[in-house]
Amino acid sequence: MTAYWCERAWLGDEGFVDGVIVEVEGTHIAAVDRGEPPHGAERLAGLTIPGFANSHSHAFHRTLRGRTQRERGSFWTWRDTMYDVGERLDPDRYHALALATYQEMALTGITAVGEFHYLHHESSGSPYDDPNAMGEALVAAAREAGLRITLLDACYLSAGFDAPAEGVQRRFSDGNADRWATRVQALAFDDPGVVVGAAIHSVRAVPRDQLATVANALPGSPLHIHLSEQSAENAACHDAYGLTPTGLIADAGVLSDRLSVVHATHLTDSDILTLAAAQVYAGFCPTTERDLADGVGPARELVDAGARLTLGSDSHAVIDMHEEMRAVELDTRLQTQLRGHFRAAELIAAATSNGHASLGFPDGGRIAAGAWADLVTIDPASLRTAGTGGGEETVVFAATAADIVSVIASGRRVALDRAEVADRLAASIGAVVS
Q1: Per-residue pLDDT averaged across 402-412, rounded?
Q2: In terms of domains, do 34 and 84 share one?
């Protein structure tokens, strides 16, 4: 048993509370109490919140940061660079890159990651001797970095509606959803810190008659999909099927309360009601959505209708959950020319408890008995946070990842040297970029 005394801890609906004693046994919190620090307790000075859940990650996209803005940058310069990297990775290189990326996440207070994984096979499209070698490399990297991981194995069969996979996309495809399901159902990890979930890359990448196969392959496990990320996707889907992407997945029987719709940027009013009625998770990734000029999604409307908001760093233009939280509010302000769409507490919940639940860790993202023992402490007196009040608004609207002074993940302190992680990032990225 280890005891921590939190100077100020965030207890969900109660907000920040002074003098919180957290007793940890193994990977979970055994008890939470209030009072003076008990003898031998480790002090956590500052603002302590639950660990963040990064609900949407593509680990190999970390190579793109700072490299896709040639001239003024476009979606195509971004995609060309992404595909170039995708051709160069093998299981060993992917493990090295993912380890460094996940260690960066751990240093920013992320304690669980949802890895949306579609880089499955050799560059020729042939499976490795171990067909799940790439996914297993990601899981090993996350656990080595101290993160829990949900491996969201994505079915990706076509380049577009009625367009076969070609070039590097051959690495993504299993040929059909049945073969994808056979491969994914062979994944098994004897580790409570690992969840295997399913993903539909997008409605353009999985034909209509195979969507249900993916949705039903892992009953009870998380299911994620990129949905209506760009208006062009909506137009192409309507041309192919006469439906919006939301209408298509509803018609195919994909909707359920275990589904996370990632981006959900270009939705009709009817789409919002359809998704909310199923109580889906709406996975917003504001720093990537702005980097790719995708647009600003209807976060407030989705939440008001009954969807649950989660947050992810996606392509890792930055890895900073504070920035993802405040961007939901600030981007909506720019779009509407109005302030005050989200309370800070709602955004903290999106980045913590909601995110963990969407990844199949329902006991994560809370400082409560029985929850995963994740404690992230923020300095309330840095250059950015000094004088900001030391409450929920400080966490969301003032702090950055640089203000995190302590991370405990699954009961273990994250003890990483930032310079060593930076060197590891530089080396692993340098090994796969031209």
Answers
A1: 98
A2: no
